[in-house]
Amino acid sequence: GAVVSQHPSRVICKSGTSVKIECRSLDFQATTMFWYRQFPKQSLMLMATSNEGSKATYEQGVEKDKFLINHASLTLSTLTVTSAHPEDSSFYICSARDPGRGLNYGYTFGSGTRLTVV
Amino acid sequence: AQSVTQLGSHVSVSEGALVLLRCNYSSSVPPYLFWYVQYPNQGLQLLLKYTSAATLVKGINGFEAEFKKSETSFHLTKPSAHMSDAAEYFCAVSVTNTGNQFYFGTGTSLTVIP
Q1: Which helix or strand (DSSP H or E) is residue B70 part of?
Q2: Strands, E, within A1-118: which ranges?
Q3: Which of A44, A104, B37, B111 would disulfide-bridge B51, Cβ 3.0–4.6 Å?
Q4: Nearest-by-CA chain A residue for B39
C-alpha cells in the first residue's frame, strides 16, 4: 500500500520551454505532497509543500513563479518548470503520506524525474 | 530545529565485510528516524524506520539500525555486504510539529569491493 507514481521518469526539453511533472498517489488520498530536488551526488532538498485545494508553500530561495505547483485533487500534484534553463536540470522527486496510516508510517517517494534542459 | 548529519560521504567495504553507515540527529522533540536507499536514477526506497518502539530496528535486505538516545545516533549496519548493496543511503528525521516534513542527511555513497 501507499504507492506514489511519478511521471515522466526522464524528460529532455529545450531551453525556454516548460515541463510538467506529475505525482500521483495510487491507493490513498494525499492532502499534502512534497517536492524535492536533488543535484548530482547531493542530498534531497525540499522545494515546496503542495497542499490540495490551496497554494503551495515554497522553501526559501525557491522561485514560485518558476516552479509552479498545482494540487487540484487529492491524488495528483503537478510541478511545472517554466521557461526551463540548463541550470534547472536536476532530479525531481515527490513524496506523500497516507493520512490513513499513523505518522510513524513515514512517507512514500515517487521514482523521480530526471530533467535535462538542453 | 531538526537536522541530520551523516558522517562520511563515501564508504567502501569489501564484499562480505561489515557495513556501518553513521547518522546523528538533532531534534528538540522525540523524532521518527528513517533510512532510505537510492539506486542510480531511481527514487528512494525505505530500508527501515524508528518510531519509538524497539530501539533496534530491523529492515529489508538484512539491514538494521539502533536508536541511541544518549548518543543521538541511528547508525545503519549490515553484517555482510553484498555487491547489490552499492547505492546511496540517506538518513532522515521527521517530527510531527514541522508539518511532517523530512529532513535529510547529505547521504553516504556505499561502494562494495569484490
Answers
A1: none
A2: 4-7, 10-13, 19-25, 32-38, 44-51, 57-58, 67-73, 76-81, 90-96, 108-109, 113-117
A3: A104
A4: A111
A115 close contact with B: CB closer than 8 A: no
Point out the residue among A43, A91, A110 whose CB comes nearest to the CB of B105: A43
DSSP state of B55: S
Q: What pLDDT digit, counting tens, does each position of B19-42 carry?
A: 999 999 987 777 888 999 998 878
Q: A59: nearest CA in chain B?
A: B101
In tens, the pLDDT along B47-105 reads 998 877 788 999 999 999 999 999 999 999 999 999 999 999 999 987 664 455 678 89
Residue A29 DSSP one-character state: -
Q: Given this model, what pLDDT does residue A13 score?
A: 96
